[in-house]
Amino acid sequence: MPELPEVETVRRGLAPVMEGARFTRVELNRPDLRLPLPKDFVQRLEGETVTGLGRRAKYLLADLSSGDVLMMHLGMSGSFRVAQEAYEQVREETPGAYYHERSTARAHDHVVFHMSSGARITFNDPRRFGLMLLVPRAELNEHRLMKEVGPEPLGNAFAADMLARACAHKKTSLKAALSDQKVVAGLGNIYVCEALHRALLSPKRSAATLATRSGQPTPRAEKLVTAIKDVLHDAIRAGGSSLRDHRRTDGELGDFQHNFRVYDREGKPCPTRGCRGKIKRIVQGGRSTFFCPVCQR
DNA sequence: AGTGGGACCTGTCCGC
DNA sequence: TGCGGACAGGTCCCAC
Question: Which residues neighbour A292 within 8 Å (Cβ) at sequence distance 6 or greater?
Fold first, then answer.
């Protein structure tokens, strides 16, 4: 599911119920996701307060009062839902009383956080490509999953010269280079296709053509950086994209899928003004690429 | 060292 | 209706 705009949308949904709140109880319904969960996962969370909820690349990062960081990744199919559990709070305060559980657990609800804010936060992930890890804050940047991650595309540091340098000696396509988290963090299949279309660049073009022989950015590197920033901003503003069952934490759908120009639009007319092309689907690196062979060069 | 391909999972959809 | 195959928003590991 989730690329940078979706993860950022999730972060914004979780922050109000997590930041400043304490984990009162943590339920683990299986021992592993993509990786084994730490054996002391529950003990290291319960009683801790979330001091801040951030994002790096496609990772959500919850800073804890203990000094640990809870790293969370949604993989392909992970999602968080927030519900209020006022009844359960009342039940804790008045032992012996009986209250109905308000929610029904769904299949693949692997982790449940009960927060002192009264929120119940449920992580659901059918394919289990997601992960949760606990890492001491001081070690986060050197963690094997983090240390190679490239620049944040919405940060000021991400600019044409940086992108050109990262691509200058690559033998791969633009599609593969932009999908590589070491080159730029947070893009995935959808937003790579969308950014390349906005920049009118072919996904098949050699990534090295973003730089001159001396490694300087070409005008197409400038255009591409602008396109990446624009499409990510637009998507975040729309609450991300909702394909299949992907939802925001409040259960509402994101809207950006209605603004796709090429993704999953094989055979449709190219939306570029004045272009008479039709969107084509090809396979690169085993994944679908959508693009207009007429205006994307 | 960089690159492509397969592997990891489950669910859904489409054609027969 | 059932069944097999293709495909899905990610990324890791392993051969070349």
Answer: A197, A262, A270, A272, A275, A277, A278, A279, A280
Q: How far is CA A138 from CA A20, A60, A63, A67, A179, in A?
A: 21, 17, 11, 8, 28
Catalytic residue numbers of A read 2-3, 58, 287
For the entire predicted model, the pTM comes to 0.95
* Bases in strand B with any atom closer than 7 Å to a protein CB: 2-12
Answer with the one of A109, A142, A175 that is the final residue of a domain.
Answer: A142
Domain boundary among A96, A112, A142: A142
Three-class secondary structure of residue A219 per DSSP: helix
Question: Is there a domain that residue A76 lies in?
Answer: yes
Q: Digits of tens for pLDDT over chain A (297 positions)?
A: 699 999 999 999 999 999 999 999 999 999 999 999 999 999 999 999 999 999 999 999 999 999 999 999 999 999 999 999 865 555 555 444 444 455 688 999 999 999 999 999 999 999 999 999 999 999 999 999 999 999 999 999 999 999 999 999 999 999 999 999 999 999 999 999 999 999 999 999 999 999 999 889 999 999 999 999 999 999 999 999 988 666 678 878 889 999 999 999 999 999 999 999 999 999 999 999 999 999 999
Residues A177 and A206 reside in one and the same domain: yes
How long is the CA A57 to C1' B1 vector, in angstroms?
Answer: 24
- Does A231 lie in the same domain as A177? yes
- Structural domain boundaries enclosing A215: 160-291
Domain count, chain A: 2
Q: Are residues A176 and A102 both part of a single domain?
A: no
Residue labelled with tokens 């999908």: A179
